[in-house]
Structures are given as C-alpha cells and as structure tokens.
From TrEMBL:
<feature type="repeat" description="TPR">
    <location>
        <begin position="250"/>
        <end position="283"/>
    </location>
</feature>
<feature type="region of interest" description="Disordered">
    <location>
        <begin position="1"/>
        <end position="74"/>
    </location>
</feature>
<feature type="compositionally biased region" description="Polar residues">
    <location>
        <begin position="1"/>
        <end position="42"/>
    </location>
</feature>
<keyword id="KW-0802">TPR repeat</keyword>
<feature type="region of interest" description="Disordered">
    <location>
        <begin position="491"/>
        <end position="525"/>
    </location>
</feature>
<dbReference type="GO" id="GO:0036064">
    <property type="term" value="C:ciliary basal body"/>
</dbReference>
<dbReference type="InterPro" id="IPR019734">
    <property type="entry name" value="TPR_rpt"/>
</dbReference>
<keyword id="KW-0677">Repeat</keyword>
<feature type="compositionally biased region" description="Low complexity">
    <location>
        <begin position="505"/>
        <end position="517"/>
    </location>
</feature>
<dbReference type="Pfam" id="PF13414">
    <property type="entry name" value="TPR_11"/>
</dbReference>
<feature type="repeat" description="TPR">
    <location>
        <begin position="216"/>
        <end position="249"/>
    </location>
</feature>
<feature type="repeat" description="TPR">
    <location>
        <begin position="352"/>
        <end position="385"/>
    </location>
</feature>
<dbReference type="GO" id="GO:0060271">
    <property type="term" value="P:cilium assembly"/>
</dbReference>
<dbReference type="Pfam" id="PF13181">
    <property type="entry name" value="TPR_8"/>
</dbReference>
<comment type="similarity">
    <text>Belongs to the BBS4 family.</text>
</comment>
<dbReference type="InterPro" id="IPR013105">
    <property type="entry name" value="TPR_2"/>
</dbReference>
<protein>
    <submittedName>
        <fullName>Bardet-Biedl syndrome 4 protein-like</fullName>
    </submittedName>
</protein>
Amino acid sequence: MASTSSLQSEGSHSVRSPTGTDSPSVAGSSPDGSVTSVKSPTSPKPLNGAAVPDAPSKQPPAKRSEAPKRRGKVPDLPVFERRNWLIHMHYVRKEFDKCKVLIKEQLFETQYMCEYALYAQALILRQEGKIQESLDLFQQTVKINPFNADNLKQVARSLFLLARHKAALEVYNEAAKLSSKDWEIYHNQGVCYLYLKDFEKAKDCLKHAIQYHRHDASFLQLGKIYLMEGDIESAIDTYKKAIEFSPENPDLMTTLGLLYLQIGMTQRAFEYLGNAMTYDPSHVKAILGAGSMIQTHGDFDVALTKYRIAASKIPESPHMWNNIGMCFFGKKKYVAAISCLKRAAYMAPFEWIIIYNLGLIHLTMQQYASAFHFLSAAITLKPKHGQLFQLLAIALTHLDDHDNAKQAYEQAIMLDIDDPAISLNYAIFLYNMEDRKQASRHFAAYEKKMEVFRKTKGGDIEREILETGNRLGPALQVGEKLVWDAEAKTTRIPSSKAQNDKNNSSPATSASSSAATLPEDGSFV
C-alpha cells in the first residue's frame, strides 16, 4: 500500500455512513477534529510543491489475493529403487567406497531384492578382479529379472573373462533372443567363436555386428581373423572399410600401415603411419613402425629420434629396445647395441629375435663362444629358422668344430632352400675343408638360387654376396689358393642383422622392427 499523507483540509467535516460509522475512506481523525485521509495509489503527485487534493476513486476496492494452495507431499519412491540414482552417481564418479556403503544399506533394506544395487556391486567386484563373485551377483540379477538382456550380457561377460567360452556363448544366445538387434551381442559371440577356433562362425557374427552398428572393435576383430587365416588382402580390405567410417582412428591407420609394410608396399605403409602420427603424435605403434622403416633405409639417427619419443611412453617395451640396439649396431657402436639388446632380453627372455640379434653382434665382434651361446638359445626358441643355423655354423667354424658346423649348414639348407647365401657360405666352408667336389655342387646350387633371386627381387642383391661368389667360382675351377679364406668364413647376408620376417624366405628383405610384423597367432606385437 502507498504511504499515508498527513494533508489536512481546513473546514472539512467527517463523513459518516448511514449506520453512524465512519466511511471506509476515513482512516482516523486528529485530536483537533480534522480528518486524515488515505492517499490513493493513483492520486497525482504534487507539482512544484503545490498540494493536489485527492481525487475520488472510481475503481472498486482490490480483492485480497488468495494464498496458493499447498501442494501435496512428493510421493516416496518404492523402497527397492529409492537409492538407485545415488548409487549410480557415486559409481560413475568411481567413488566405490561410498557406493559400497549405499549398496549395503539398500540391500539390507530390500533383503537382497534390489536389482540395480546387485548389478552395481557386481560391476565393482569385477573391476577389483573378483570375477567369480561378480558372476554370482549377476546371476542373482537374472533371477530377479530374467527378461533383462543387460543382465544376461554381464553374466556372459564374466564367463568369458573366466575363459569359459562355450558357456558364455550359450548365455549370449539367450540374450540374443531378448534383444535381436544388439550389435554388442553379435560382436561378443564372434569373439567367443574366435577363441574356440571356429573362424567361419566368428566371421558371420562379426559381419552381423557390423551391419547393426559399424564399430571399430568389430572391424579389428574381423581383420584379425583374416590375418590368422593368412588372408592379408581381405584383412586390408576390412581395415580400409573401417577407416571409411572412422577416418581419424590412429589404431586402424597404424594396423593398415603395418600390413602394407609386411607385404612390401612401403610407400603406402609410410603414408598410413604418417597419418596416424598426424592425429596422435605420441602413438607408440605408429612411431615404432615408422622408425622401423627409417631404420631399414639406413637413417639410424632419425630412427633413434623417433624411438626417443616412444621411450617416454613405453620405457618397458622390449621391441623398442631391440630396435634401438640394432640402430647402434648399424652405427657400429657395438657396446651400446649389446647393452640395449640385453635390456630387451631381460624384459622379454623368450623373444627369439632379440637373442638372435645378440648372437649376430657377438659374432661380428669375433666373440664366437658368446655368439654360440646366444644362437643356441635362439634355436631352442625358433628351431625352424635357417638363418640361425647358418650363423651357428659360422661360429662353430671359428671354434674349430667342423663336424657340427657341417651339420648346421645341412640343417640350414634344409630349412631355407631359397637363400643363396647359405649355399655360398657352405661352399666356402667345404672349399676350405678341401672338399672341392661338394663345394662345386653347392656353388652350382648357389648360382641357380641367385638366378631365381634376380628374377624375383631384381636389384635387391647385396654387393658383398656377388663379389664373394665371383671370386669363389674361378677358384673352384682353377684350384688357386684363395687369399680371402679367413674373411670368407664370415660371409653372410647383412640384412639378416635384424631379420624378423615370419617366413624368412627372402634373404634381402630386412624387417628390423619386431613391432612391424605379425607373429604366428596373427596378433600384432
């Protein structure tokens, strides 16, 4: 209400109602009998200090506003679901201790009949590594709500983590009946079939998953199956399709680049590896792959720069230290190379390529006993590798164990029938043993293999092999004493320094990075 004014009208009389009471417009009277009126909110304000008399009000008096009706009490949630929102909030924040307290209270109140509380507790137990306990809780959620596909998927996931793939597959089949278009169910079915070695069904399930949702994980698993089957072209096509739908995924680009590197398409490989490092400059696999290619071309300083970036991310990677060691070997820093390779061997004692490189470096440093030790260990891990037996034969030759050296050469030729360097080294060994008939026979085999090698590899033949062969041929025909007998004992293909190809059928193919190749199980190192 507007404030009242104390304007008094001289000679005014009080207004009475017919009943003898004051009218509603009178608020009260002063002691001298004058009347004090209530100022209307719409009365004009005085101008220049002049008093303006109140105008009679023509509007009816305003009605008193009624107080708003009080709303009813918020209905209580059912006791089973009362704390679900709070449990979920603490769980997504990873505040597991508070979450456990709430879950315990909720389960106590509901007598273990709260589905979500059991579900959240099972997830927490799984993250803590208590998979069997989480499986028991997930099975309780299935009993409470057997028509929830998420509960069945979690039961199957726990069974999968327990390596019970057949049981997990059966549960996934039940979940598929409740949710027929869930890509995750088909994806996990494909992974289960993959571990059960049923590749055809695995591919069918993964293709169904891709139809419902094009997820990178499904493409990666499908490509992995093709690699395990030896179908590299199909794997490349699969990863290309994946990149079309996810063009900024560095993992897919790196995988595709390493596949191109494996089949010898270095330009395409470097392109994809470069794109992967563009989106993620610290992507470790891309750095190792690119460093391997640079190292293969002899630019060891640039390769070491790449490996320095990777070392800050994965300081415990044996493959990285193997490649660093071979960079130092290429720079003829043998002590540093041995130090890096021994560190790699400490991290991965059963990685045959690291032991192989250690034997090669000791052989180069003329430490033949140490070379024999490492090469024998590598043969134990990789018994069907011809290059290993060739280097072992060279070490035995310098240790004056000619009988075992001859057997090692025979084994190397039997395991690697396409390598001309093995036949050449064996011919030199037999020539020095004065067995010229057998030396001539193996030299003829060397020439045949070299012709085939020229047609398939072109100009990739190393000069050292050609020079040694050109000197051995006339010596075998004329019978002159060779002045290069001592150095010929160690003649071998320099590209075998870091040979890491799975088949090792090409002596001039260098793959110095163990991260750029695929092991026999088809997965990337």
